[in-house]
């Protein structure tokens, strides 16, 4: 097959191979080769590398250019692909036989600029080690300004991108700059000095310490602690990739991040700062991910730029009472150097960029982050939290990268301003769940059964996006597969399942009658519950023998598996315990609140009044009143409460709601007085209703002419989740009866499938239809399915940037067609392809009141546009159609034009950035000519030339209601633009 056909035939696979990693590196290396070979001219290169353009779009443009250039360019392109792609990716493409000589062409190198171009691929790699030196030389010789240097060294650039950017700038500066660069590289190569970063030969003592530290880190990280109470599971066997994303959109990073990107430069927002925040909900896998990083480092499999890695757990640092210096903190809490402590510490001070600190669970530190107390001296002693805060803000050990994990709710603006970047851990993807379950069960038939049962219970499948819940569900597979109808629906159901599982696991013979298991183990639950409850109240997650004793926890209770031995690297002889996960501690605290008869009567309402507590800074004092047995003075003298406590209190409250649900009343029958339980149920219902009212009160009155809109405040989604846990539609109905808004905005609210289930459960009771705006969350296909029960109440659904695929759309539209109110949808920036357009066509055919369809920045081609046209042809209502940033090309534009030519409803059409040329524009002119409704046509960033614009001008002469046709960034010269604007002022260039 000819190279040209191969490029066309394998287009999808090539795009995938070039872009699926999310990194631009493969594409840019191919571009280097094509430039070096003279197959791409500079202008073509610049047209592809438009700043801010999505990676896939750049790759598509390259493919278009290569294809149009013919068979030779295609052959060279395939050869370049073969060289650039890793073996595995290359194996999925047919590239054999394309191995050309990829060295630069000698005959093209009469000037230095040409030499730079012809040797671009090797120069990019050679420059990486000496960017600074080259920049300095360019500045000294007057070729570069400091602004040029800043641009090259932008933190979002990877080292290879810095090298490319430098070469591109040099080219723009001319021949003399190019000569300086060549000369500099030649010299440094000869002396061998700076091409690779400084070479260090650490002392023998240092190397011994390095070994000791890595074997200690390896030992600490090779097993997963959740399994401690039941079985050992090595991290290697069970580790499953979670979904990592940057918290701030970054034009240069597309697609998922990998583990090493956490400490890499990708997505840096503040290059002065050293601290990377890894944030995620409880159980999303933050500790496990750090554990994985530690293990890979200790084994020499990752992060090898760092000579030393010091891991810390904030929950363990809580128990450090002494004042320490940084040196003592490192050596006493991580690894003690047997000799030459001073020399080793000096090495650390001298080479901060070779050192990495990790702090797990900043939200579990007793003290909330503050940057008020400054400390600069690494040998000065201070309380551990002061050290930690100074390390994070960089006044101590500047230059050492610190990775800190926390739950998002616990991160305030003071901490945010010291962050280099924030990375979000969003739990498992659907394929991650599949992978985890298969790893968990060595028996593949059991894994298949668990997965099948998850498919039939999508609420539970949604919960499994949280790794800790996925673990519980896998662990309790026997209970899960045996329970048929009563399969768990809520988080509380899942935790009750593991409670029962652990009890029955420890004493399988004793468990006799149904529901008896709780009664049998009531004392254990109360002891552990009290321990958990007091711990939550005092921000204590690691318990001494004395703590256990004071709550009556005995050996038998420990043996149940909920408590595990704390892995503490510091010098403490006594064994300490912690709950295997913080959510388990919250669950026991909730059990205690429900079962105990000694807690204060107002304990429950105080638990739900978190918001007030935060505002009045009284949480410790309020919450301590819950505990009748607690010494009030002691509690009141605790540190001031901080936002760090809120997440645990919220989780506890969510469990309290779930445990007091009608469905679980049977469990408490023989464990506590039913009149007290009923009272608690009423209290919870009252608190939830009151909490909701407070949110509704905050809704501002609409500006006249605008819709009444509510932007969810923090805590709104939590209340919704509590209501869902109760599983009582009466409460949901009551809560929603007073909400009167036209638009409900829940953007950037961390909404995943679990939250979608709860939202749909509650929102379906709204009295009037709303616009539901869920942009920039992690809804995904599973979440979309969860939202279906509330579709009938949504008139508009905004799901921009939510990782939704064609499969999610299939289900959404099947339901949407049946919903009378549903008339607008926005799906910008998801993963949609041509396969979804048939569903939209069906929607348009079946709903003659549908108003707005926005599908920008997806992967829709001419085929998709043709399918869509089938629906548009018969639809009489659509007003807005947005297809910005797809690839429908001329053929797609023609299909749409034929379908919309006589439209009497369409007001606004956007085909920005779709590879539409003059043929497409001439076809679209038919809509202008014939449609009686169109007002705006957006054709910016296409490749329309004069011929196409002529057609548009002629059509506009017959039309007075079109207000503007946008044509910026098309293939027209300045003179043409000027002339045409004069002829038709409605054309906007
Ligand atoms: P977090 O620190 O966010 O609260 P953890 O890392 O403690 O969450 O995860 C809780 C549990 O979930 C772990 O003990 C483990 O059983 C499971 N888990 C989390 N992440 C992963 C992962 N990437 N692979 C396998 N299991 C995981």
Protein traits:
989 residues, alpha/beta, 11-stranded parallel sheet, 6-stranded mixed sheet, 50 helices, binds adenosine-5'-diphosphate
Beta strands, count: 21
Principal-axis shape = globular
User: In angstroms, what is the radius of gyration?
Assistant: 31 Å
Our count of helices gives 50
Give a short summary of the structure.
This protein is α/β, with parallel strands linked by helices. Helices cover 50% and strands 8% of the residues. The longest helix is centred in the last third of the chain and has 24 residues, at 674-697.
Task: Please describe what this structure looks like.
The strands form four sheets. An eleven-stranded parallel beta sheet has the order 11-12-13-14-15-16-17-18-19-20-21, with no helix packed on it. By secondary structure, the protein is of the alpha/beta class. Helix content is 50%, strand content 8%. The longest helix has 24 residues, at 674-697. It is built from 50 helices and 21 strands. The model is unreliable at 192-199 and 611-643 (pLDDT under 50). It is globular and about 85 Å long. Bound molecules: adenosine-5'-diphosphate. Adenosine-5'-diphosphate (ADP) binds at residues 224, 226, 238-240, 242, 280, 282-288, 436, 467-468, 471, 581.
């Amino acid at each position: 097959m000819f190279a040209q056909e191969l490029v066309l035939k394998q287009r999808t696979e090539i795009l995938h191979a070039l872009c699926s990693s999310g990194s631009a590196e493969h594409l840019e290396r191919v571009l280097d080769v094509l430039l070096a070979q003279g197959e791409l001219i500079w202008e073509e290169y610049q047209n592809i590398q438009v700043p801010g353009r999505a990676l896939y779009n750049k790759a598509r443009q390259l493919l278009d250019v290569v294809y149009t250039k013919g068979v030779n360019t295609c052959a060279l392109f395939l050869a370049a692909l073969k060289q650039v792609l890793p073996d595995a990716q290359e194996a999925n493409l047919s590239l054999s036989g394309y191995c050309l000589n990829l060295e630069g062409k000698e005959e093209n190198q009469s000037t230095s600029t040409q030499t730079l171009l012809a040797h671009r691929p090797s120069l990019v790699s050679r420059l990486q080690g000496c960017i600074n030196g080259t920049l300095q030389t360019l500045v000294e010789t007057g070729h570069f300004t400091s602004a040029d240097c800043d641009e090259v060294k932008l933190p979002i650039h990877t080292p290879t991108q810095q090298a490319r950017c430098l070469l591109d700038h040099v080219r723009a500066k001319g021949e003399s700059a190019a000569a300086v660069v060549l000369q500099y590289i030649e010299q440094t190569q000869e002396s061998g000095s700076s091409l690779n970063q400084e070479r260090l030969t650490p002392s023998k003592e240092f190397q011994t310490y390095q070994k000791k530290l890595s074997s200690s880190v390896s030992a600490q990280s090779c097993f997963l602690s959740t399994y401690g109470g039941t079985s050992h599971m090595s991290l290697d066997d069970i580790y499953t990739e979670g979904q990592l994303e940057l918290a701030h959109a970054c034009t240069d990073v597309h697609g998922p991040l990998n583990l090493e990107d956490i400490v890499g430069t990708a997505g840096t927002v503040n290059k002065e700062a050293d601290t990377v925040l890894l944030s995620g909900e409880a159980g999303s896998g933050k500790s496990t991910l750090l554990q994985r990083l530690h293990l890979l480092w200790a084994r020499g499999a990752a992060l090898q730029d760092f000579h030393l890695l010091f891991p810390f757990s904030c929950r363990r640092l809580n128990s450090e009472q002494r004042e320490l210096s940084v040196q003592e903190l490192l050596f006493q809490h991580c690894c003690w150097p047997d000799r030459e402590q001073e020399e080793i510490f000096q090495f650390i001070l001298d080479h901060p960029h070779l050192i990495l600190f990790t702090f797990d669970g900043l939200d579990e530190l007793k003290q909330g982050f503050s940057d008020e107390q400054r400390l600069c001296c690494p040998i000065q002693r201070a309380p551990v939290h002061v050290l930690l805060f100074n390390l994070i803000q960089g006044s101590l050990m500047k230059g050492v990268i610190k990775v800190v994990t926390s739950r998002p709710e616990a991160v305030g603006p003071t901490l945010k301003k010291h962050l280099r970047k924030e990375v979000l851990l969003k739990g498992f993807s659907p394929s991650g769940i599949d992978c985890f379950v298969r790893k968990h069960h060595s028996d593949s038939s059991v894994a298949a059964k668990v997965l099948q049962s998850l498919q039939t219970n999508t609420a539970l499948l949604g919960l499994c996006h949280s790794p800790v819940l996925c673990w519980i569900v896998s662990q309790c597979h026997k209970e899960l597969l045996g329970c048929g109808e009563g399969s768990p629906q809520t988080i509380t159901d899942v935790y009750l399942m593991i409670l029962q599982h652990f009890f029955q696991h420890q004493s399988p013979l004793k468990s006799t009658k149904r529901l008896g298991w709780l009664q049998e183990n009531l004392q254990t639950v109360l002891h552990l519950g009290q321990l958990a409850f007091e711990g939550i109240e005092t921000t204590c997650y690691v318990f001494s023998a004395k703590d256990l004793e004071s709550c009556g926890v005995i050996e038998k209770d420990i043996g149940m598996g909920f408590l595990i031995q704390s892995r503490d690297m510091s010098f403490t002889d006594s064994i300490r315990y912690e709950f295997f996960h913080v959510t388990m501690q919250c669950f026991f605290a909730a059990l205690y609140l429900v079962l105990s008869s000694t807690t204060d009567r107002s304990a429950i309402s105080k638990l739900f009044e978190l918001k007030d507590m935060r505002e009045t800074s009284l949480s410790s004092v309020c919450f301590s009143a819950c505990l009748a047995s607690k010494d009030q003075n002691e509690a009141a003298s605790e540190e001031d409460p901080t936002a760090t406590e809120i997440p645990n209190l919220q989780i506890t409250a969510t469990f309290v709601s779930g445990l007091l649900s009608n469905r679980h009343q049977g469990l408490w029958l023989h464990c506590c007085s039913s009149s007290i339980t009923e009272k608690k149920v009423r209290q919870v219902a009252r608190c939830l209703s009151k909490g909701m009212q407070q949110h509704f009160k905050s809704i501002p009155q609409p500006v006249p002419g605008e819709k009444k809109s509510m932007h969810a405040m923090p805590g709104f989604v939590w209340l919704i989740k509590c209501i869902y846990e109760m599983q009582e539609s009466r409460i949901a109905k009551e809560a929603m009866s007073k909400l009167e808004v036209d638009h409900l905005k829940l953007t950037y609210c961390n909404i995943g499938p679990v939250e979608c289930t709860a939202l749909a459960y509650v929102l379906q009771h709204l009295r009037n239809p709303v616009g539901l705006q869920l942009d920039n969350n992690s809804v995904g296909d599973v979440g979309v399915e969860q939202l279906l029960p509330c579709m009938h109440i949504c008139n508009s659904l905004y799901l921009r940037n939510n990782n939704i695929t064609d499969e999610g759309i299939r289900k959404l539209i099947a339901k949407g067609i049946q919903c009378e109110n549903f008339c607008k949808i926005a799906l910008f920036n998801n993963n949609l392809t041509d396969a979804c357009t048939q569903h939209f066509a069906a929607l348009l055919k079946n709903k003659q009141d549908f108003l707005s369809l926005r599908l920008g920045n997806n992967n829709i081609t001419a085929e998709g546009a043709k399918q869509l046209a089938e629906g548009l042809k018969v639809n009489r209502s659509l007003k807005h159609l947005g297809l910005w940033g797809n690839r429908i090309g001329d053929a797609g534009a023609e299909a749409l034009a034929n379908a919309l030519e006589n439209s009497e409803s369409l007001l606004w059409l956007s085909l920005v950035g779709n590879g539409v040329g003059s043929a497409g524009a001439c076809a679209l002119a038919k809509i202008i000519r014939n449609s009686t409704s169109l007002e705006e046509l957006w054709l910016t960033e296409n490749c329309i030339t004069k011929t196409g614009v002529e057609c548009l001008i002629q059509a506009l002469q017959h039309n007075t209601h079109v207000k503007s046709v946008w044509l910026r960034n098309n293939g027209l010269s300045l003179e043409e633009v000027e002339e045409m604007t004069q002829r038709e002022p409605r054309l906007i260039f």
